UniProtKB/TrEMBL annotation:
It comes from Flavobacterium fontis. Pfam families: OEP (PF02321). Belongs to the outer membrane factor (OMF) (TC 1.B.17) family. One of its GO terms (molecular function) is efflux transmembrane transporter activity. Residues 236-263 form a coiled coil. Gene3D superfamilies: Outer membrane efflux proteins (OEP). This is Efflux transporter, outer membrane factor (OMF) lipoprotein, NodT family. It comes from the Bacteria. InterPro entries: MdtP/NodT-like, OMP_efflux. Keywords: Coiled coil, Lipoprotein, Signal.
Length: 484
């Protein structure tokens, strides 16, 4: 007997030693350093207090109001919120797994033991014993078994596997929150772009109407001179054609306004909503005083970068949990309650029973499956790292592009504003010269065309500057907290 026990112990020890030979984790990779120097990869080094704020970055209250409406009714926002709730449920569940479970058990069964089984023979002999009373006689035709009580089981997290799984769930919850921030940022950017495109269309419509008024004024001059023989019919027809062209452009602009308003309604989650808007584009953002290095530091607070960072942390925790799965598991349990083979004796003091147990479980035949799961977790960790690296590269290059475009736009705007001023004066001079006979009607037409083109170009660069400023706010991980 002792020799057999030694063999069992020897087998268990060998199994435990074999299970301890778990695969090695891949070395942790670090981000490639940015051109400005080595940057900390831990986003906790950047706080939300350093990021630009919606209320200070954008002074247009009507735009902020539209965003608040979208937060309440946009379907993508509502979906993102539900995903956060799901991730939070997984997080809570991962914490509960580390605690002992406690179940209330109510069970009843009936068994007919054969005459040639140990239980059947044992029950028959027990009924013949003089040491039992009437309540202890066993029904051998159908032996009942009743139990009412509590049972509990707990896995001791001696290797930290359950802790790592909980850590992975926590990081996925944080990633889901950053995913919701990303949805909010994308939504606000789209709303702001369409909002300022509407303002630009309003301004474009004003430009065409003003140029149409100038065209009409010039036409009146030509028509008057035609009546006294100082101008030809060709000049009159040319100016009429120009007027019709401007009227056509004004009508087409109204179609564009309708399309943009409907697109904006879709983002707001509304079928129809009157878009109340201002009349000013953004030409300078409120964060221009920041140094370039401060901008780069803010990259690590962007929701897309943070989302990949937390996914990387979750994948690393998963890999460590998969490694710990090769090690022995210690499970402790207990059972306490009333157990009897007759209903009338179930709740008697003599039916009270309890059990304490403990077990050490080590994987043997399923090690190949555990290796596959570990390999998958390791590859997921690699994918998560390269996703994080990619997000940082994209964030950095996007920021460099936006900052470079901002400098060029500021110079271009100044030049275009001067050009528009010169051409406005040129139109006035051309009208005077035409009246006095020092300019022909083609020079007058060309001067007005050039002014219209310059006005539209200036508006185009103002809109591009505005859109660049909007995207820069998103690129810096701007805080989208509103009054809600």
């Amino acid at each position: 007997m002792k020799q057999q026990l030694r063999k069992v112990i020897f087998i268990l020890v060998c199994g435990c030693l074999a299970s301890c030979a778990s695969p090695k984790l891949a070395p942790t990779k670090t981000l490639a350093p940015l051109p400005e120097g080595e940057m900390a990869i831990v986003p906790d080094s950047v706080t939300l207090k350093e990021t630009p704020k919606l209320s200070t970055y954008f002074s247009d209250k009507k735009l902020v109001q539209l965003f608040e409406i979208a937060l309440a009714s946009n379907p993508d926002i509502q979906i993102a919120k539900e995903r956060i709730a799901i991730a939070n449920s997984y997080l809570v569940r991962s914490k509960k797994v580390r605690l002992p479970n406690l179940d209330l058990e109510l069970s009843a069964s009936g068994t007919r033991f054969g005459d040639y089984t140990m239980e059947g023979v044992g029950n028959f002999d027990t009924n013949l014993s003089s040491n039992i009373n009437e309540r202890q006689i066993i029904n051998t035709n159908l032996t009942p078994n009743y139990f009412v009580g509590l049972q509990s089981a707990w896995e001791a997290d001696i290797w930290g596997k359950l802790k790592k799984l909980s850590e992975a769930a926590r990081n996925r919850y944080l990633a889901s929150r950053e995913g919701e921030r990303l949805v909010r940022a994308t939504l606000f950017t789209d709303i702001a772009v369409l909002y300022f495109e509407l303002i630009a269309l309003d301004k474009k419509l004003t430009i065409y109407e003003e140029n149409y008024a100038l065209q009409q004024k010039a036409y009146e001059i030509i028509a008057a001179q035609r009546s006294v023989g100082k101008a030809t019919e060709l000049a009159v027809q040319q100016f009429q054609a120009q007027s019709k062209n401007l009227e056509t452009e004004i009508s087409l602009l109204k179609i564009e306004v309708l399309e943009v308003e409907n697109a904006l309604n879709a983002l707001l989650g509304k079928y129809t909503y009157r878009i109340d808007r201002g009349n000013t584009l953004m030409t300078v953002n409120n964060e221009d005083s920041k140094a370039k290095e401060q901008y780069v530091r803010l990259l690590f607070n962007r929701p897309d970068v943070l989302q990949h960072y937390f996914e990387l942390q979750a994948s690393q925790a998963d890999a460590k949990a998969a490694k710990a799965a090769f090690l022995p598991r210690l499970v402790l349990g207990s059972r306490f309650g009333y157990n009897a083979f007759s209903a009338e004796t179930l709740f008697l003091p003599g039916s009270l029973t309890y059990q304490l147990l403990g077990g050490l479980f080590t994987p043997l035949l399923n090690r190949s499956q555990l290796k596959l799961e570990f390999n998958v977790a390791s590859k997921e960790q690699e994918i998560a790292f390269w996703g994080y690296q990619k997000s940082v590269i994209q964030a950095y290059t996007e920021l460099q592009t936006l900052l470079g475009k901002r400098e060029i736009y500021q110079k271009t705007l100044a030049l275009k504003a001067q050009e528009v001023g010169h051409l406005k004066r040129a139109v006035e001079v051309a009208n005077d010269l035409y009246i006095t006979g020092y300019a022909n009607y083609m020079e007058l037409i060309n001067t007005q065309k050039n002014k219209l083109t310059a006005d539209l170009d200036l508006l185009h660069f103002e809109l591009d500057t505005t859109l660049n400023t909007i995207i820069l706010f998103k690129a810096l991980g701007g805080s989208l907290e509103t009054s809600q």
